[in-house]
Amino acid sequence: MDFKARRTRDEERIRIEMLDDEGSDGILAVIGGGSWGTTLAALLAGNFDKVNLCEKDEEVCRDIVENHENSKYLDDFKIPANIVPTTSAETALEGASIVLVATPSYASREVASGISGIVAENQPIVIATKGLEGNTGLLNVEVWREELAAAGHGRIDPLVLSGPTLAREICSGLPSVCVLAGRDTDVVGTVKSRFTNPLLSITEWSDPLGVQAAAALKNVYAVACGLASGMYWGDNVVGSIIWRGMEESSRFIGALGGDPAVMSTPAGIGDLVATCISPKSRNHHLGRMIAGKDLDDESVRGVTEGAHTAQEAARRCRSLGIKLELLDSIWLLLSGKSQPRDVLNAVFSPVITSHVLEDGCIVDRPEAATNKWSIPDMGV
Fold this sequence. Notes:
By secondary structure, the protein is α/β, with parallel strands linked by helices.
């Protein structure tokens, strides 16, 4: 199946057109009709006969049925005709060969609990949600594992889909590369074959926990990059934030028992860079708003996961016994307890002297952290 984006002369509407749906079959269930869930449904619509899109907002469902649009979350975007919206999870899962979840992280427990009670053993679950659960700091894949086990479906081990996937670019017909992670290689291979299309190249990975950890933290560092952009700190600082984000994410992943090598994949460095530097990133945009730029709140559509993730990530790090200086500084800023200069100070702190690589892994060397850097006055 091929997609293309075009603009008509009469109306400036971005459209994804299905040019060839040969080979499509089966039903895909997508849970969550926000900007990301709708985008994924449209992206994969040509791979399936039908896509059941579960969205609790009746107005959104009505808009899709009557206008083939989701104007609440995605302007100027026509939704393929084989996407069928429903407010019922049971209806969405009926006959589906794969269940794809794209709800906000704060709703993961509620959604996982509901789906776990009705999903079939032969229905793979793919989590495309990024972030951490409130109060517990658990990754979405951890929440789903708990709820599936509680419902007697412990044999179902959720997969994770992640990578540099800015919704606006995908809606415009631009391609991307994602990581599909799961511990069952056969299931991963099956889902990969059903999801791959000319706009979505997929690479396999065996560590869903590590992929989710990388995906959660990158939204926090994107806020810092947006702040740096809005404060005119320069590209050198933005690059330093991205490097620092990689270093801190690697430590976080390792502390959770994941493989820090995931940071070298599209789900790691690829997603981090795209989210941190793109003005299309909601979290980058949030950082600019904090700096006093782009003050139109309406332009930040959907959920900025970075704001929700920062507090929970800081809490989870404390429970793991690790300290991520930049992440902590961003959380304090978002909670109104510090100033932008404190984020800049965290970027310049001497982390490079406190860790070394041994056998490809970052290990602590606290005794080496003796440098004291002087931060220039940048008017923050």
